[in-house]
Description:
Layout: H1 10-25, E1 35-41, H2 42-50, H3 53-56, E2 61-68, H4 76-86, E3 91-95, H5 109-114, E4 119-121, H6 125-134, E5 139-146, H7 151-164, E6 169-175, H8 179-187, E7 195-199, H9 200-206, H10 212-216, E8 222-225, H11 229-244, E9 250-252, H12 264-273, E10 274-276, E11 279-282, E12 286-289, E13 293-295, H13 304-307, H14 323-327, H15 359-366, H16 371-378
Parallel strand pairs: 1-2, 1-7, 3-4, 3-5, 5-6, 7-8, 8-9
Antiparallel strand pairs: 10-13, 11-12
Amino acid sequence: MKYTDEFRDPRLAERLVREIEALVAGMPRLRERPLQIMEFCGGHTHTIFRYGLERMLPQGIELVHGPGCPVCVLPMGRVDDCIALAERPEVIFTTFGDAMRVPGSRKSLLGAKADGADVRMVYSPLDALALARRHPDREVIFFALGFETTMPSTALTVLQAEREGIGNFSLFCNHITTVPTIKAVLDSPDMQLDGFLAPGHVSMVVGEAPFQFVARQYGKPIVITGFEPLDILQSLWMVVRQLAEGRCEVENQYSRVVPAEGNRPGLQAIDRVFELREFFEWRGLGSIDHSGVRMREAYARFDAERRFAVPNLKIADPKSCQCGEVIKGVIRPWECKVYGTQCTPEQPLGALMVSSEGACAAYYNYGAVKPAAQAARREVVS
Ligand code: SF4
């Protein structure tokens, strides 16, 4: 297949692995502990497990799977808020399919649908707007979530609703932003990370500049990365090469898709409709300042949180959840006390088991790394 197979060529993958090995072999400090490189994005985590990339890497490199799955990091209280909105008799509650199974404190949206709430799956916010046009007697709420990748389409849909004067359409806004979250990971006292793979889809919107602080303030290399196996391996080679050469810069491996300046019309639409929230609660990470957005006052009539009462309760994760430690790379998924027992993809207890892109679900579903083998990698490299 043109333009897909080219990025999955096993011979090129082997060559990249050998080049990474050669770089690692020339780095004597790796005798003390393995290099830890975090892929922030759940899409990258999925590729790593799907293609078994972690098993191909030399000893001395450890991948840490970050918090970049917007479905996984949705706190229980916000899911409960969704359900309270969906259970209102006048409401058609619309959502992407992967958000249907996220557990709230009592049930998921799928459970609410089974109990009679009018919850419908859509493929885009425009589908939700079309429903609002077709059902002028109902209130259509779109469950808006995701990083900067999905924010432009939500913002443009609100602007379209405004142009058409549609009065029965609103958002339950749970969009989150990337930079404060990477900063929260970097500021963690347990942080041992040596470099980052930056999310390709987010970068398509925001460009390269927002990641400069990682290199300048924290002295860590960061490479914007695509989603095919060769993208990931080439980006790892670029990170390791920077470390070997004592550099820390933002590099763009995904330049076939990501323009350095990002998507200006998309950023303008985001800026017109949304403003930063003072803080936003993340499942597994707690509250992170300015890490989420809400709708500006000018668009209050499209804001479900202002139009309808939501319980807005904070619900703590079960005590046995160790998602925060996994996200920060302090423990590996299978080291969590409830991994594979009380917490499985069928019955997720914690955030990272919820969506297939979460680190725990990826480990569980692909079985790509045997705990014993991985434990051996963590030992001091001799
Ligand atoms: S196994 Fe479950 S509770 Fe433990 S870290 Fe993973 S998702 Fe969280």
